[in-house]
User: Which sequence fits this backbone?
């Protein structure tokens, strides 16, 4: 199925060009010039990538991002904006954006960013947002030599334990699923793959954001901050520690901590 893209852009000089380029790339594009309409469209499901301008006529794009994340949207949010200040970039990442492009940008760069997200599978396997929905049972492994074994079942996890299932791209604390964005999951999965080991900032940036990423590394700090808050809110015994001068480490607190 062709990727479903929602373009939220009110500039009549920019929107048609973007729509044409996206459709030429094979995407199915829905366009809206307002934030309220964008929130309603995302709530209806199907959307895999949101291209979001910040300067909208009704509500600010940051508020749109905040609302769709609060509503359970876990696909990709790529912000497009004429605001180029670092503060705006950090705020956008703090409210759940996955990536950021400042205007003017090249169409080839935009399309490359979208291809990268889809290639990693962030937006092609949407997960249920209903917390009462039962998680799917992983398919049996065909061979013992498979490189990636199925993740632990949330129904058999120890009470309160953090488990990360890379096949279904879901994370659980005990039996409760964590609501994670695509990049939040990717960062958590990398840390969990070597739980207790220090993972460098460079490794996280290269594997999650792409080795050709030229933006501020504060995008990583913002993602780590959101993960820490979600782990704390869920009462997970696992926590993300900063390894000064190196990167981060996912570790379990001792039972009497």
Assistant:
């Amino acid at each position: 199925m062709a990727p479903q893209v929602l373009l939220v852009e009110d500039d009549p000089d920019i929107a048609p060009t973007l729509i044409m380029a996206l459709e030429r790339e094979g995407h199915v594009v829905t366009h809206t010039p307002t934030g309220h309409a964008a929130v309603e469209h995302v709530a209806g499901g199907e959307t895999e990538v949101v291209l979001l301008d910040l300067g909208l006529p009704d509500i600010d794009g940051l508020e749109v991002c905040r609302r769709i994340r609060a509503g359970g949207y876990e696909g990709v949010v790529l912000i497009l904006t004429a605001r180029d200040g670092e503060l705006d970039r950090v705020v956008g990442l703090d409210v759940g954006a996955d990536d950021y492009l400042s205007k003017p940008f090249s169409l080839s760069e935009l399309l490359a960013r979208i291809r990268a997200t889809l290639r990693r599978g962030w937006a092609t396997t949407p997960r249920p947002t209903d917390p009462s929905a039962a998680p799917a049972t992983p398919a049996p492994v065909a061979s013992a030599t498979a490189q990636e074994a199925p993740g632990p079942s949330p129904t058999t996890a120890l009470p309160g334990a953090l488990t990360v299932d890379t096949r279904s791209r879901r994370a659980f604390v005990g039996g409760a699923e964590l609501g994670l964005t695509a990049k939040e999951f990717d960062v958590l999965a990398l840390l969990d793959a070597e739980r207790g080991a220090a993972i460098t900032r460079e490794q996280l940036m290269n594997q999650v954001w792409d080795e050709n990423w030229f933006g501020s590394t504060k995008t990583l700090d913002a993602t780590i901050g959101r993960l820490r808050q979600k782990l704390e809110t869920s009462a997970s015994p696992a926590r993300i520690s900063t390894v000064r001068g190196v990167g981060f480490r996912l570790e379990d607190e001792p039972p009497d901590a």
